[in-house]
Backbone:
C-alpha cells in the first residue's frame, strides 16, 4: 500500500456535546486502504458521533480527522463525492417509490451523470435485492427494506470508501447474510468499507480489521485475526465425570477451571504442554472423556480479556 494515505486517520479526535457529554475521547484511528474495517462497540460508545465527525456533519471539539488523505470537515466538498455513506437511516420520501427515491437522490448529486442515471439506479436496486419492490412506495417498506434502499443510495456511484453505520440494523438473518455478502463483494472490487456494528460475530465474519470502542475511548484496533489471537483459547472437556476431571486439571496446574453442566473448561496450558497427555491422564483416572478440544479464541474472548467486561451482544 506504500505511501498512499490511510482511508481514514484521526488523531486525538474528541467530541464533547453541549450538554457536557464526552461522546468521543481522544480517538486515534487508522483505517488502511482496502480493508473492511469494523467499528465495534456497545450502544452509546461513540460510534455514530465518530462517523458524523468523519463525514463533516458535526465539528470535533478537538483533534483532527483525515478522510482519503484530506482534512475533514474542511475538505468535505471534495472528499464526500468519493465516499458513499449510510448513516442513521437514510432520509426517504415516503410518497415516492424506492426507485424514484434513488432517481431523486442521484439527481441532487452534482457529480452524478444524468445520462447513466436510470441504469445506475437499476443496478443499485438489483445489488441490494430490491428489484421486485422497486415500484412500491417507500412508506410501505419494512425497516430492513429501508436499510437496503439506503445502501443502494450509497452504491449509485463507484466509491473509494463506503461508511456504513450499522448496515444490518433491522434486517432478518437472511437479509444480514445478503448484506454481508455484498460488503465482501464490494471489498473485493477494491472499495474500503468502514462499518459500525454492535455485533461481534458480524465483525468477525466480514471484517479484516477492527477497532473496539467503549465509553468514547478506543480499546484496541488491528487485524481481526491478530486481535482474536491475542486472547488465549480454552480447553473444553465434555464428560459426565466433571468433578474428577476438574480436580485433575487443577492438580495439573491448569488455571481457571470452570464446571458447566457436562463440560469442564479451563485456560489452555502453556504452548509446550502436550494436550494428548492431559487427555490420556484423564482417561487413566477413569474420567469418561466424550469430547476434548482446544477452542479457538473469538473476538469476544479478546474483548473480555482486554476490558475485563462482558460485551453486550444483545445491544
Ligand atoms: N446530539 C447529542 N447531544 C448530546 N449527547 C449526545 C448526542 N448524540 C449522542 N450523544 C451521547 O453521546 C454518547 C455517544 O453516542 P453515539 O450515538 O455516538 O454512540 P453509538 O456508539 O453510536 O451508539 P448507538 O449505537 O446507540 O448509536 C452517548 O452517551 C449519547 O447519549
Residues:
Amino acid at each position: 500500500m506504500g505511501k498512499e494515505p490511510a482511508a481514514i486517520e484521526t488523531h486525538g479526535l474528541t467530541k464533547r456535546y453541549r450538554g457536557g457529554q464526552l461522546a468521543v475521547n481522544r480517538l486515534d484511528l487508522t483505517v488502511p486502504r482496502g480493508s473492511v474495517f469494523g467499528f465495534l462497540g456497545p450502544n452509546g460508545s461513540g460510534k455514530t458521533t465518530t462517523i458524523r465527525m468523519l463525514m463533516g456533519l458535526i465539528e470535533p471539539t478537538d483533534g483532527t480527522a483525515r478522510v482519503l488523505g484530506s482534512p475533514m470537515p474542511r475538505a468535505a466538498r471534495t472528499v464526500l463525492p468519493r465516499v458513499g455513506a449510510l448513516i442513521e437511516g437514510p432520509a426517504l420520501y415516503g410518497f415516492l417509490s424506492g426507485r424514484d427515491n434513488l432517481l431523486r437522490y442521484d439527481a441532487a448529486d452534482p457529480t452524478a451523470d444524468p445520462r447513466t442515471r436510470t441504469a445506475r439506479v437499476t443496478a443499485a436496486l438489483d445489488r441490494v435485492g430490491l428489484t421486485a419492490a422497486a415500484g412500491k412506495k417507500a412508506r410501505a417498506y419494512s425497516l430492513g427494506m429501508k436499510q437496503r434502499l439506503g445502501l443502494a443510495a450509497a452504491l449509485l456511484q463507484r466509491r473509494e470508501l463506503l461508511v456504513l453505520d450499522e448496515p444490518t440494523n433491522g434486517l432478518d438473518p437472511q437479509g444480514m447474510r445478503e448484506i454481508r455478502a455484498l460488503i465482501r463483494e464490494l471489498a473485493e472490487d477494491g472499495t474500503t468499507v468502514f462499518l459500525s456494528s454492535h455485533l461481534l460475530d458480524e465483525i468477525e465474519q466480514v471484517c479484516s480489521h477492527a477497532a473496539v470502542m467503549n465509553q468514547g475511548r478506543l480499546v484496541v484496533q488491528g487485524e481481526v485475526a491478530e486481535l482474536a489471537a491475542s486472547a488465549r483459547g480454552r480447553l473444553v472437556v465434555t464428560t459426565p465425570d466433571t468433578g474428577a476431571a476438574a480436580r485433575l486439571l487443577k492438580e495439573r496446574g491448569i488455571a481457571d477451571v470452570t464446571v458447566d453442566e457436562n463440560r469442564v473448561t479451563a485456560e489452555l496450558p502453556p504452548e509446550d504442554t502436550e494436550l494428548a497427555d492431559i487427555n490420556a491422564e484423564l482417561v487413566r483416572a477413569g474420567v469418561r472423556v466424550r469430547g476434548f478440544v482446544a477452542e479457538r479464541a473469538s473476538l469476544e474472548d479478546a474483548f473480555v480479556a482486554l476490558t475485563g467486561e462482558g460485551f453486550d451482544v444483545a445491544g
Summary: The chain has two domains: 8-228, 232-296.
